[in-house]
Design a protein that fits this description.
By secondary structure, the protein is an alpha/beta fold. The chain has a single domain (2-257), classed as TIM Barrel, CATH 3.20.20.20. The chain contains 10 helices and 8 strands. Strands 1-2-3-4-5-6 form a 6-stranded parallel β-sheet, covered by helices on one side. Strands 7-8 form a two-stranded parallel sheet. It is globular and about 40 Å long. The model has no long low-confidence stretch (mean pLDDT 94).
């Protein structure tokens, strides 16, 4: 899954794809490099980010989604707002990726269920503004597993089919420091819930802490290492900024691991 942020303030690539033509070129390039899904987001959810209106979010993402879907790409929309989900699906998106696991907007669970589309339920506590203060766990693996199971149950009760659900442990979202490392080591426990796992470690702050690399754009090698670790411990999908390098790393790792 290639990350396409059409925002001015995302933590790693804010502003790079805020122009429609550049965003479409970037999405096409990621698909050409081997991305199976292009994940388009119009609201920054970095720690401390302020929410924007669904109308502004849609103004950013819908033209991009429409162009990429028209070109035959599989597109997901990264949003927690039901109105944006609806508009994105109408524009050609086929997957919903929600950092709130359909908890932010009460209209989201029935909408996703009625559309029958795949949905990524990510674990997070609080909001982007408050999540840093919510990173308190006695047992991060057990608690994330329990809270994800609760969101799965809510999605199922709303009518989403089990085979349409994918789970994301939310690395860096209401997790601090070594909690992210512990969660990656415990992916097998989360996989026991019976749903595919999507993991986003690309350029995350914990990699910077482990490597002393301040700029997110300098964390490619650490991102590749963490991504391959995640795949070897149960992840099915990696959400990444650096598609060509990740595809190359996966192909070599898979060839060696399956020999």
């Amino acid at each position: 899954m290639g990350i396409l942020n059409v925002t001015p303030d995302s933590f790693s690539d804010g502003g790079r794809h805020s122009d429609l033509a550049r965003a479409v070129r970037a999405g096409l390039a990621m698909a050409q490099a081997g991305a199976d899904i292009i994940d388009v987001g119009g609201e920054s959810t970095r720690p401390g980010a302020y929410p924007i209106s669904p109308s502004l979010e849609q103004a950013r993402v819908i033209p991009v989604i429409r162009e990429l879907a028209s070109a035959g790409l599989r597109v997901s929309v990264d949003t927690r707002n039901a109105a944006t989900m609806r508009a994105a699906l109408d524009a050609g998106a086929t997957v919903v990726n929600d950092i709130s696991a359909l908890a932010h907007d009460p209209e989201a669970p029935p909408l996703v269920a009625s559309r029958g589309c795949p949905v990524v339920l990510m674990h997070m506590r609080g909001t982007p503004q408050t999540m840093s203060s919510a990173a308190r766990y006695a047992d991060v693996i057990a608690e994330v597993r329990r809270e994800l199971a609760e969101r799965v149950e809510a999605a199922l009760l709303a009518g989403t089919a089990p085979e349409q659900i994918c789970l994301d442990p939310g690395i860096g979202f209401a997790k601090a420091g070594k909690q992210n490392e512990a969660l990656l080591r415990g992916l097998g426990t989360l996989a026991e819930l019976g749903f595919p796992l999507l993991v986003g470690v690309s350029r995350k702050r914990f990699i910077g802490r482990l490597t002393a690399i301040e700029l997110p754009s300098g964390r490619l090698a650490g991102s590749l290492a963490a991504g391959l670790f995640a795949l070897s411990h149960g992840a099915s999908i990696l959400r990444v900024h650096d598609v060509p390098e990740t595809v190359q790393a996966i192909r070599v790792w898979h060839a060696l691991a399956s020999a």
